[in-house]
Here is the input.
Amino acid sequence: MIWKPKFCNLMKNSTKWISSVKRLRLTTTNNNIISRVKGQATAIVNLEKQVQSQQEEIKQLKTELFRTNNDVKFSSNSDRQLNLIVKGLPIPSRNSQNSAKLIVKSELLQKICNSEEEEQEFLKWFAVETFQTKASHPNGSGKCIYKLKFQNRQNAQQVRSRCSKLQRSNISVNEDLSGPQRAVVNSLLKKRRELMKDENTKSHLYANRYLIVKRPNGDEYFESNGTNIIPISSIPNYKSKSSLQHGTTLPNA
Here is the structure.
């Protein structure tokens, strides 16, 4: 019969058409899936960038809060910036007519001043308070802390700048730090001792608040709040080596 070949051809053509339609649908579906995956991948990348940006903003805000709290800590005791703490001087004898100020003159100023006239000028700049430690004795032996109270911070800084001449003596002259400020200095000193294990690393304390680390590939800066130490990109008002304080400022007892 003639209709059988026609029917068979029709069936074959139908099968091919159905297969073609299925392939087209599969291709379309596959392309849609690939497009959605690419879109989701792009969305994920954008989200990751947003998260990274937000994390950087959070880190920056935490750093700003950290430094703002430190600003308050170091500005709340502005009166203490007029004081210097001196250790290593003898205790004034109770039976002696010498006052604490005369001891400061004979034991400290004579070592850092260039003339008698300069000693007398420096002596006008401050009042003196003494604090005996537990190790002190009535006969004048033991330890005593002298507080030099200036009216002018510039005068206090001038006296302290002369104290580089005391390097080989038992006398130390430091700023009058509060308890929280001493905690900051202690934290930075601990970090500095760790860094000193590397012979290629040099470091300095700056303004009793920052640690400047000199490395072969560049300087690094750290700030402490007494508990934590964070890396910072720069130090306010710090420009050069000449801005560094002389030596390391040790905390007061």
Remarks:
- The longest strand covers residues 126-132.
- The chain has a mean pLDDT of 81.
- Helices lie at 3-75, 100-112, 116-123, 153-162, 179-195.
- The radius of gyration is 37 Å.
